[in-house]
What does this fold into?
Amino acid sequence: MSSNVGLSTPRGSGTSGYVQRNLSNLRPRETFAPYPTSELKHRQRQPNAEILEHDRLRQIEVQVFELRDKLEDDGVDEDDIEAQTEALRRKLDAEGHQQQGKDEGRGKGLKVHQVHELAKAKIEESERLRKALGIREDYEEGGHWKKGEERLREGVEGRGMDGGAQRDR
It folds into this structure.
């Protein structure tokens, strides 16, 4: 056997002499905290503004292309097609900029793969809920317990100083 592990010889023992590791042995943990507390705080996924703008422009171009296709099928002049598509493009772009400020109930018709739109809708929904419930912007979850602990510490420290002064008298 190697490293003085197991039997010196398996002869007469009724075993093959094979030594296995004890998998039920639990080693003590090196760190005392089983998980990092800073990573547990929920962070809202932030939408990418460039992707949102790209999707908005893409929807405009889809509608413009549909109009162009329809006009080409109808046999309209190329100059008229260009004029009408450019007018539609400008109109949709202006509507899109106006509508960006007032996206009420926007998250309902979104698909699962539209993650940036969903994230934007979720942030807007959370903001509306925060305002409706009157929650401050600087509110930190669990802040009430921290304030209680601070008051308790101040009380203990205050008693410790006063108690020592009374004993000296």
